[in-house]
Amino acid sequence: MAQNTASPDRGNNGDQKTELVDWYDLNRVRNDLDGDYVLKNNLDETTDGYQKLVAQPANGWEPIGEPKPAFTGTFDGNGSIISDLVIDRENEDDVGLFGGSGGEISNVTLANADVTGSKNVGGLVGFNSGTVSDSSASGAVDGSKIVGGLVGDNHGTIENTETSDDVDGSKAVGGLVGLNNTGDISSVRANGDVTGSKAVGGLVGFNSGTVSDSSASGDVTGSSRVGGLVGLNLGGTVSNAEAGGAVDGSEVVGGLVGDNEGTVSESSASGAVDGSDTVGGLVGSNCSDGTVSDSSTSSDVNGSDGVGGLVGFNNGDVSTVKSTGDVDGSKHVGGLVGLNNTGDISSVRANGDVTGSENVGGLVGRNEATVTDASGTGTVTGSAHVGALVGSNDGTIEGYCYVTITTSQPEDISD
Fold first, then answer.
1. Which of 46, 160, 259, 265 is most open to solvent, judged by the fewest CB atoms within 10 Å of its CB?
2. pLDDT tens string 252-305
3. Around Cβ 12, how many Cβ atoms within 10 Å?
4. 8 Cβ partners below 8 Å, 6+ apart?
């Protein structure tokens, strides 16, 4: 079958763009990584070049560019759909339609993609230090480390994008991005299910950048540092974000963020949260450098030790927050915080029922720091050290604290 030759097209601004009409044209992008391109047709398994470049090679499509040399031009998908992309490179890094990009990629739609790699794996881009905007991806993405539905490793800007990929990996696994390494992510959404081991998030696995005006709705499953939106937030910022999927992990599990060592504000979570140790409806562990403010959760939470309606274990600052879900655990169980170790909690409210065994409180299971201006309603049930406000307290409770909570624990019966 004849191969079409990519042809130049002059846009309104006078800049020359090369038109791409089939897989052969798309493949030639790798020959000029600094070029400007526009996709003029939908590409799928019936389009010229698919058999030779995608279906027949044992490893499927060869990603365009690497981190060095990366694609540094512009690629305009023009609203066209790229369907049936197959990449099977389980022992290779920097895997995606583009392996590495420091350029501008926009208006690209990937449908029914099947992408497999090792490290830095994404449906659209493996390693991004440029801009990805107004794009979407659906299908399945599998890898080992730093795996995302759209981008594996992001050092650049991602905005106005959406994914519905199911994503599977080990460490730093996210529905949209595996690792957001000082990058900016805004106005994005991830809808697929995410499965991994450590640092697993519905949107971003590991975040040290900025995530804003974003959401995730898929179910998230992992082992440690597992969150409905972000698995590990290390020095990063999460704002105006929400997560709605169910979250299931072992330790350090949160409805929005698993482990927070940064800033979370104006955000919410609503999916059920299940774990073992350090489990929270919004944040699993809020560390000494962590701040949680102006946020809420309606998640029902189930765990064992350090279980809270909002935060499981707190060493940081928690203020102006509300929890309305029910909480069920064993030790250090609170309607708002399971164990407040060295943190400050202020202007908070908990409205759910709390059930546990030891150190069970309507607001805080065990408090070793400061609680100020707190209120709550609900029923608290436990066996030992059970309180309407705090189960056990070695810290400070001050300001206006008001609860309308019913407590229940077995009577001490002795001979």
1. 46
2. 999 999 999 999 999 999 999 999 999 999 999 999 999 999 999 999 999 999
3. 5
4. 16, 17, 18, 19
